[in-house]
Amino acid sequence: MVRGLQPQALVTLTLTTHNDASQKFLSYAHYVSDDSGTVEVERSEAVGGSYTGVFPAGLLLSLMEFPHNYTRLQKEDPTTPWLMTLAVHEGHLTLEQSAISEGLTDALLERHIMTPGVRREPVVHERVRGNIFFPAGPGPYPAVIDIFGGFGGLKEYRASMLASKGFACLAIAYFNYGDLPKVLETLDLEYFEEAVEYILQQPGVIPDRCGIISSSKGANPGLGMGIYLPKVTAVVSIGGKLIGDTPLTFRGQQLWKTLKLDHSYFHIGEHNIVTLKESAVKNLYTHDHPGLPPCENAPDDTHFLLIAGDDDRCLTKLEIEAMMHRMKLHGRERQCQAVIYNGAGHIIEPPYNTHADYSIYNMGFTKIITKWGGTPWGTCKAQEDNWYNMKKFLEMHVRDRSAWYQQYLERTRAEKP
């Protein structure tokens, strides 16, 4: 809230932050103060800038690299707060003007994504590489493994946020990290099996069930874990490429076909931004495609939550539709839930992370600018709803339906005086 302005004053609000590589990100919005000289973003309407309308989280969702260079804003180190400067400027300024304006006043904000007491420990176990996060307190905690997509490396912010909500969460890398392969030729399901066994052996962790959260490229091995690893009882896919482009093997056998799309399936638009042609792929993604994982073969106690945006320019909603059709044909539709969010694109992050409409994507042999889709407002609503639904889904199928956990509750109740 901004107070002390003249009535009907024209002001520009800006939010500035830097990523862990010190690159600058900036958003701005034009407001008109009310009769009391106040601007309150929860009820005041932005009339221009990075967004318009009443959008309380608009400055967060609209942050973009400045000068613009297609970099996606992500928090690499979850142990440090995100430092952001909120400033008030006189008049309705352009983005460039607001970047150099000293402003009327400003405030430094700290956004913590890991609550006090959460423990972060490095993991170098057999082949598994990553970091594990434990909630504050003694447990028992439901176990979750977090798998990101085709950027490779290790992303920890989602795992740290889940640990802040009571989950023991192992963020794993599977290529382009440490001594792991720089470029993927194949994916080995045994690697992910080792991760499951590792987290379930940790003190304070519910030992008989494990959940998976996977994004984009990570969805293909994530589904494989749900199908072939009995202790994996809940799989969340967010913008998941269900039909993978990298062979997935288990016990020396390739589990299903892959699908590699050549340049004819893509459109190169203005500023060399690449999008997938829906007309070219809509007939590829069918329920009987040999690369679609056979989720109907998963154990009866394993459930899948498939999430996508209706404006996902990677068209993962088409793959979800094919999977739902397949599950229905096999009478297993109760094990698979789909949620398609209006106005969201390929990237659906935890709440109030910046909307990425497009960004640089490293394909190993080259870098391209990929269109991800969605709008800041639609993305924000999807983030809020998905975060709540995903947590409830994991709590139900990893914690509440655990025989070990129910026995623990019975013992605890019996021990009370």
From TrEMBL:
One Pfam family it belongs to: Bile_Hydr_Trans
Domain Acyl-CoA thioester hydrolase/bile acid-CoA amino acid N-acetyltransferase: 2-123
Active-site residues, record numbering mapped to chain: S216 (charge relay system), D312 (charge relay system), H346 (charge relay system)
InterPro entries the UniProt entry points to: AB_hydrolase_fold, Acyl-CoA_thioEstase_long-chain, BAAT_C, Thio_Ohase/aa_AcTrfase, Thio_Ohase/BAAT_N
Record SUPFAM superfamilies: alpha/beta-Hydrolases
Biological process, per Gene Ontology: acyl-CoA metabolic process; fatty acid metabolic process
Gene Ontology molecular function terms on file: fatty acyl-CoA hydrolase activity
Domain of life: Eukaryota
Assigned protein family: Belongs to the C/M/P thioester hydrolase family.
Name listed for the protein in its UniProt record: Uncharacterized protein
Organism: Scylla paramamosain (Mud crab)
